[in-house]
Amino acid sequence: MNDINLLMDKYYSWLKDKTAWKTVDKWVEITAPYLDHNNDYIQIYLKKDEEGYLLTDGGSTITGLIQEGCSLDTPKRQKLLQLTLNGYGIIENNGTLQVKATPDNFALRKHFLLQAILAVGYSRCK
User: Could you give the CA distance from residue 105 to residue 112 in angstroms, rounded to a whole number?
Assistant: First the structure.
């Protein structure tokens, strides 16, 4: 069991070392060590608000799909997008993926946003 604990500790250390946090105006840009479907590191943004924290992709996920020629205008594609986002508790607001967080659930909400970005990006229009 010590081997498993050591592996977990190494993973947590890698995750912490490879995640970059940078303040940009009133936002914190978080670069996660996970690659999207274009092999780019995923960046999300964090801002404190009156209810806690707002996490968002800044619109990059949906904008990226549209730039690649994937129209999300059809009812079927909208339904698939909504189904995917609902699975992670993420909302789409004017083309941005968003989730609210508190200090108690921040880690989980951040993880869910990253998972949703990956799921939406990899499910591109087929």
Answer: 11
Q: What is the CATH number of the domain that holds 70?
A: 3.30.1460
- Provide the domain limits for residue 101: 21-122
Does any domain span residue 5?
no
15 in a domain, yes or no? no
Judge whether 17 and 32 are in contact, CB under 8 Å. Answer: no
pLDDT at 102 over 80: yes
Residues 2-10 have a mean pLDDT of: 93
